[in-house]
């Protein structure tokens, strides 16, 4: 089938003993940017409208989840200063 996309196995990330909050936040911002780009591309797919709608909604849900994760990091930093 021509419309089958193979899943690629990613190499596991190296174990990190100490995680820097700034590095995690940076990764989340990069992920957020990628999700927004993919959402825009998904909205322009030439697929049935219902499929596109579901795909875009799921991607927007993922954007919301990443934004919440960023909020948690920010709140954790503020809580530590109080």
Structure overview:
The protein is mostly helical and 82 residues long. The chain is 68% helix and 0% strand. It has two helices and no strands. Helix 1 packs antiparallel against helix 2.
Core attributes:
82 residues, mainly alpha, 2 helices
What is the number of E strands?
A: 0
Proportion in β-strands: under 5%
Structural category is: mainly alpha
Helical residue percent band: 55-70%
List low-confidence stretches. none
Q: Give the biggest beta sheet.
A: none
For the termini, the CA-CA separation is 58 Å
Count, helices: 2
- The coarse overall form would be flat
Series of H and E elements: HH
Radius of gyration: 17 Å
Mean pLDDT: 82
Short structural description:
With 82 residues, this protein is an all-alpha fold. The protein has helices spanning 21-43, 49-81.
Lay out the secondary structure.
Elements: H1 21-43, H2 49-81
Helix pairs in contact: 1-2
């Amino acid at each position: 089938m021509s419309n089958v996309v193979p899943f690629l196995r990613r190499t596991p990330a190296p174990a990190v003993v100490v995680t820097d909050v700034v590095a995690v936040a940076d990764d989340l911002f990069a992920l957020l940017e990628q999700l927004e780009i993919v959402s825009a591309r998904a909205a322009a797919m030439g697929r049935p409208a219902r499929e596109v709608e579901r795909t875009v909604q799921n991607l927007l849900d993922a954007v919301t989840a990443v934004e919440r994760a960023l909020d948690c990091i920010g709140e954790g930093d503020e809580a530590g200063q109080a």
